[in-house]
Amino acid sequence: MSLASPTKSSIWKGKEKAMDEDYADLRPVITYRHLHSHNLGVRDPLRVVGLCDSDAFYAACERVRLNLSEDAPLVVQQWESLIAVSYPARKYGISRMDKIKDAKKKCPDLVSVHVATYKEGEKEPGYWDDIDTRTHKVSLDLYRRESAKIMNVFKEMLPNGEIEKASIDEAFIDLTQPVRDTILERYPYLANIPPNAPQGADTPLPSPPLELDWADKVHLIPILPSDDGDDSPKDESEFPPTWHDVALCIAAEFMTKMRKQVLDTLGYSTSAGLARNKALAKLSASVRKPNGQSILRNDAIPNYLRPMAFQKIRFLGGKLGKAFADEYDVSSVGDILTVSLDEMQSKFGEESLWVYELVRGIDRSEVKEKTAYFKSMLASKNLPKPITKSSEGPQWIRVLAAELTLRLNEARETMPSLWPKTIALHLRKGYEASRSKQAPFPFVKEVTVDIVASAGNKLWKEMTGNAKDVNVGALQLSFSNLGRGEVGQKNIDGFFQQSTKRSREDAEDDQPSDTIQGRASSSSPQSPSSFVCSRCKKRIELPIHVVEIRGHDAEGLAETVAALRAEHDDFHFAQDLANAPETDQTGPAPKPSKPSSTGRDTKRRKKAGEPSKGIARYFNKAG
Ligand code: TTP
Ligand code: CA
Ligand code: CA
Prior knowledge:
The chain has helices spanning about 5-10, 15-20, 30-35, 55-65, 85-90, 100-105, 140-155, 175-185, 245-265, 280-285, 300-305, 320-330, 335, 340-350, 355-360, 395-415, 450-465, 505-510, 520-525, 545-550, 555-580; strands at about 50-55, 75-80, 80-85, 110-115, 115-120, 135-140, 160-165, 170-175, 220, 270-275, 295, 375-390, 420-430, 435-440, 470-485, 530, 540. The protein is of the alpha+beta class. It has five domains: about 1-20 and about 305-370, DNA polymerase, domain 1, CATH 1.10.150; about 25-50 and about 175-300, Alpha-Beta Plaits (2-Layer Sandwich), CATH 3.30.70; about 55-140, MutS, DNA mismatch repair protein, domain I (3-Layer(aba) Sandwich), CATH 3.40.1170; about 375-485, 2-Layer Sandwich (Dna Ligase, domain 1), CATH 3.30.1490; about 490-575, no CATH class.
């Protein structure tokens, strides 16, 4: 750290002061009003959020499919690379970084499964012997299906909890409401405000129980830091349980039950984290893996976060985190705590309030089911060798059509009225901007590969025209504007719920379907590595290194882009919250020395729709 630099030293607050102030909201007063309110949302002092992540997920899916023992050392391969490694295989020192050849050297008994692929002429993905990137296309359908089963277990077991799928193998679960109901059941004396309560509903709750029986197989992240080399439990008696700890303890019971159900009925072991918000739940979930469950009590937040590399925090891992690290020469959360809010905002814009809060263990993003997730479906293929003849297109379009057909029909099993309004074809050279063309997709009762392929072929023909020579490095076929409607209804417009506000993306579908090169990328509804945000109207693109990490093929991208979209939504949400005027007194009291965390200062408020100049750029187009 270059603390000595005179220009930089002026931005550091006194270390001492930082320690005292930074985590000031760990033991908020909880009143009867808090306990009895149902709509405090992210300001709820009793808020408890879990994140559940499946262990070595793709490997587990293949183990279950093949009915192998849990001890089998197994890897999932995509071409020559590994995309998932079971925990028994990790014992041999095998990691995702290895090539299959090296992994087999490390463990001669290794079971290796190549991810399923679509093959020309086959309607369904399968496990073939002659896998070749020139003729096959990766299918993640099995993992998507298993993922949906896990989500269904959560939904069934927790009808009044909010569940948000965060990626193919993880979900955030807001347990606040079910936990609140349980608290009232277990501590019935809290159900009514005592007639002699001095401040009525605003009277603090009586003291919580002196000891909590933390459920089995739960790891409590320690409140006090371990001395060098000494991990033995410390005396934490100066931190008696709070009502929030009671809430966490009950949340842990719910989580244990759900994870057990997933393991018993589906065969998947999972790891979970529980804390007061999403960012902290996500961090805690990776503390004990596999098959672990960690709880981060509020009192444990400071010593857990301070020494941590701040780039481990959700959203701070990418370009934004790197920009902070470079700007302030910081690496740990403790380092970054010494950067004042004014300094941060002057360099990174008003919204960096949100980073300022994250490193202080505050995350105001909501757990919300993302329905936009199902608004589009896409299948894509990066070709190992570009297509150079127009006549070579249809064979790939058929492969993509088979995948889309399968996925649409599968989705229609649970949502029979689901129908896409539009079909689009994108053609790209490498990762350059794509050319695309779209057309309305007419309603038919039964969708078949032939119907989808012929719609795709028509677009291909229109795009490549009579040209004999073409140069196409990647193809993508997509359905967009999927909506619900009455089965058998002919009028496509009738399929869409009135409640969905028309986004710019929807509106663009009314424009002529032909798109021209260059503009195509920014006006098309989907592209494999990006999406257009309906709020800030920006095309949000995955960084190219992520595109590469997700495999040699574009398949994994759909998931990653969905996650990116969810994160981007959260980003807007966090911004909204930061800009919203405070409506109650349950949040942390604003400190006079810096702008309120709820942004009362209207001068600081941005106009809706105004493009963000600050940290938003770190979530945008690479470059
Ligand atoms: P992860 O949850 O990151 O990893 P994992 O489930 O394999 O292992 P862990 O127990 O450590 O959580 O990713 C979930 C699945 O996503 C993984 O099984 C395979 C896929 N994936 C890729 O295809 N490419 C990648 O680079 C990563 C990180 C994951
Ligand atoms: Ca996982
Ligand atoms: Ca994961």
